[in-house]
What we know:
Number of domains of chain C: 4
Strand order of the largest sheet of chain C: 3-5-1-12-9-10-11
Helix content of chain B: 25-40%
Distance between the termini of chain C: 60 Å
CATH topology of the largest domain in chain B: DNA polymerase, domain 1
Radius of gyration of chain B: 15 Å
Distance between the termini of chain B: 23 Å
CATH class of the largest domain in chain B: Mainly Alpha
Number of strands of chain B: 5
Shape of chain C: globular
Number of helices of chain B: 5
CATH architecture of the largest domain in chain B: Orthogonal Bundle
Structural class of chain C: alpha+beta
CATH superfamily of the largest domain in chain B: [2Fe-2S]-binding domain
Shape of chain B: globular
Largest interface: B-C, 59 and 56 residues
Oligomer: heterotrimer
Largest sheet of chain B: 5 strands, mixed
Radius of gyration of chain C: 27 Å
Strand content of chain B: 5-15%
CATH class of the largest domain in chain C: Alpha Beta
CATH superfamily of the largest domain in chain C: Aldehyde oxidase/xanthine dehydrogenase, molybdopterin binding domain
Strand content of chain C: 15-25%
Amino acid sequence: MIPAPFDYVRAGSVEEALAALRDHGDEAKLLAGGHSLLPLMKLRLAVPTHLIDVGHLRDLSYVRVEGDVIAIGATTRHHELETSTVAASDAPLLAHVAGRVGDPQVRHRGTIGGTLAHGDPASDLPTALLALNAVIVVQATTGRREIVATEFFLGFFETALAAEEMIVEVRVPRTGSVGWGYEKFTRRDNDWPIVAAAAVDGRVALANMGGTVLRASAVEEALAAGASAEEAAQQAAEGTAPSSDMHADGDYRRHLARLLTRRALESVAR
Amino acid sequence: MQISMIVNGQTRTDDVEPRLLLAHYLREVCGLRATNIGCDTTSCGACTVIVDGLTVKSCTVLAVQAQDSRVTTMEGLSAPDSELHPVPAAFRAEHGLQCGFCTPGMVMAAIGLLADNPDPTDREVREGLEGNLCRCTGYHNIVRAVRTAAAAGPAASSVPSDAQVTA
Amino acid sequence: MSILGTRVVRTEDPLFLTQGATYTDDLTDERLSGALHATFVRSQVAHGRVLTVDTAEAARASGVVAVITAADLVDLEPLRGYSFVAKTMVRPWLAGETVRFVGDPVAVVLTEQRYQGEDAAELVAVDIEPYPAVVRLADSVREATLLFPDAGTNVAKTFGDPRPKDFFDDCEVVVSQAIVNQRVAPVPLETRAAAAYWGTDGRVTIWCSNQGAQQVRDQITEWLHLDDGLVHVITPDVGGGFGAKIGADPEFALIAWLARHQGRPVRWAESRSENLVGMVHGRGQDQTVSIGGRRDGTVQAYSIEIVQDSGAYPWLGTALPSLTILMAPGVYAIDEVHGSARSLVTNTTPTGAYRGAGRPEATAAIERAMDLFAAEIGMDPAEVRRRNLLPAFTEPHKTPTGATYDSGNYLAALEEVLAAAGYDDLRREQALRRDRGDVYQLGVGISTYVEITGGEPDEGGEEHAQVEVHADGQATILTGASPHGQGHATGFAMLASAQLGIPLDKITVQHGDTDRIPEGGGTMGSRSLQQGGAAVHQAAGELIDLARQRAARILEANPDDLIVDLPLAGLSVRGTPGTGISFADLAADEPLLVDSTFRAAAATYPFGAHVAVVEVDTESGKAEVVRLVSVDDAGTILNPLLAEGQRHGGIAQGVGQALLEEILYDDAGNPLTSTLADYPFVSATELPSFELIAMETVTGMNPLGAKGIGEAGTIGSTPAVQNAVIDAVAHLGVRHIDMPTTPMRVWRAINEARSAAEATGTES
């Protein structure tokens, strides 16, 4: 219930944070909202010796239009994204999903950068960002690079983010009034999804159907070939490797993937 | 390391370990023990307080993260020997508490809910309180309490900013 | 206008809503200054032999004062807990030889500061050679592995005899079903906590979060072999108990022992993860029910065979099947009723009492059986119930299982709840949706129930109260009850206020301090108002008599001419206003105080009926409770606001069991639901607001006419919801789904019914 001891530094700038990351390497973790990291640390499943607090870097908190994308600063809280008028008009799927993460208190603290870096295959926002074809901008002392969402999630709680890198921005193509759908299946409203499906602009992403959030490419191909929502959704479990746990076994997850994909696509059409 | 913040209107400066949870800082360093800890997975919300105007689960915030912040706990809502703040008043009127353990967090979460949505439906109240667990009341009277408090208008979601409340 | 029966807000609340209540971990009593913090090291293996417990590194850690293992507890004998526990199944204070469940305490670390405890506990290296883990009841029954080899068996207790072979011979129809009443976790929001301080007078003061200080005092005195009078127990504010905080936990006694051993006060407050493995679990019965009768709907015979999960060490849960058997026939007039049970040990957390404690299991079983019987004969489940309910009675009624119900009107409860629910409309809506083949189907579930509160079947309980009026006009009530959210301080003050005329805000009710209140039964089993309140009522009455004698002398009047003058809060001479004297003035020279013990003639039997309406998404299997309508008749209601609160909370826990909650273990005995992130504790979004109907059928067992209400909601709602979910998909061929009725279970049930229908070529 109490984290193991660690050293703490509050970074005054991105540069400071990156320098600290470089100096402490694998033993350091960035702290933004802390609502992915601190729960792990409290159970001592994560034991970083250095925490670098970037949660106060207000320069990294913004939601703004930049040409044909919405640029979202990495320390933007879910609550800010949920209530952002820019997000509501230009990427409504994202605004909606930001409002589905956890509960209000969690949404007041959790950040988009933190959620992405955590790499949880059962996470709402990464699922939506994958469906939106978002681009993740990361920075190290050596410079910046951009990673498209389809190449960001590598494995179970493993992302393409190197130890010395920090997410600084997420760029989401503006989808405007194009139809979207998000189906999140839980036992209780507040739970992590047993399975979730996000659909927008011909793309479908799934949560908790494998070691990472993933795109339902067979569904997308079927849609592109003119299949109906119902037909295409039948392919939702293709290429997935859902785990069995106390909430659902593999069979049931595959069923949910098909069901939720169909319903998300039906929302798109409405 | 040294931290300072404003807790229930009073500036405090203390020397703490980086890993000290805000919940323990409030309880054991500030002596404000109304805020309770009911779990270790950020699930139950009993530890909910308001930091810089937003409800947070203080068990999942390090005290050091709250440097320079304004923090309000349930003790900061109602001055001693005077009328209860509209939200706790409503909780009393509607019997929205039994054992009282979830109550401080529930009251603060309700204030946050009303700040976001001053006139919620029953369903919106339930969703707004999805981060707060209660075993005693079955939530029925808590929902009534929040609806009753909503009728009090903006006072229900206000938090005294300079309340002189001693721990 | 009497205050009795009115909605009075609680006197406890102003403090609770400003500074907050004071729970055990909040205590700043100066006796605890400098207290050591205790952190337990618990087994991570479900069953095994303890090879080594290496404490050396932990002992060197920062702030560590001591690391205690079984080897240090030389003057303590293993624990029996209850008299029915076999001597061969005793429980060690700290496991030194064998660990028997994940969570079994192996060592305790004492540190100067709280945070240091977890750091040091991590450093204690426990080496265990695993034995096969006996996790499922079926495995325990097979007895391939014994938890207690010296016992020669895994059976901790048996109840009843085998069912006669010809039991159902006269029945046209017999239906049998295996039912699981699953293990759940009580999860009071306040976890367990205790603190101990030894004074220079050789006495120990123990603060603990518990439902009855007096019982804790007696148990710890016995467990630590102390002389009577040395143990002083105080229960501060308690953040929920629900039965799981009945009786002392071994940890409490260990904390006291550690404090003496170290010569310093010691305090302990467990984390939630520790609580989910360390606090007793509830329920945990595998049941086989059989119900037989005629096609006209008459139930003639019912049997239930129970295998109760005791967990690793027989504790209170082991004994609960006796209550299940006692209440097996429920509200029905069934001629032949048979029940038998065995409690077995498994390598899991010990089971104890949890809201209803043995009675929800009985109701869930008979209510499932009634629905199964109804389905078998093609009769509406409400009608089957109507045909079999015991007719209304006001004189005690003895059942085949030996319970003596005090008063009941089961038909009225059923008809009221059906009317309030709009039963016929619901069935019409259901039929419409079925015809249309809607994805979202409606399910209607009924339960009619009766339960036993306030004592054993053959004897009522007793409770003590002291009422004192002070010279300044204030009054103090001491009660042996032990409220932890029920509002007894308000309720008992209402009783005294109604009798004495003293305003509520001048009455203080105290409990939970064994030096002030040496005798008491605590708050559990829904006993407090009917016994504790009755004791207050009785004491107040006796105080009036005492006051009358005193007033007679002072006023030079005949005691028989003195009547209670409520506005005066005293006594006046009949027919002569302005001649009175207040109780306060009567206390001017000597205390005006009465101690009284109320003995109930027998237990009482509250009853009721619930209707649950659920919507099931037949594509996913997910069920949502859209309405919960209930009648819970507990006799005379003292304060409807408080009574409703008890019903709400009980109903929520009942819905939680039916729909969501279950403690799960993997095959090796590792807990899978040991955090609140994993254990699906029912939250606000899974519940509707409830529709409560008032009904009061008084009991003759106490002057208040009150029965217990604390557990009724839980007992009634669980089967109503379970039945509703099954009802929603019954037209698809589903006849039973075990609790919790998870989406996956419902989905599977639909699929299996569909496959079965296809296999036999039948349409459902």
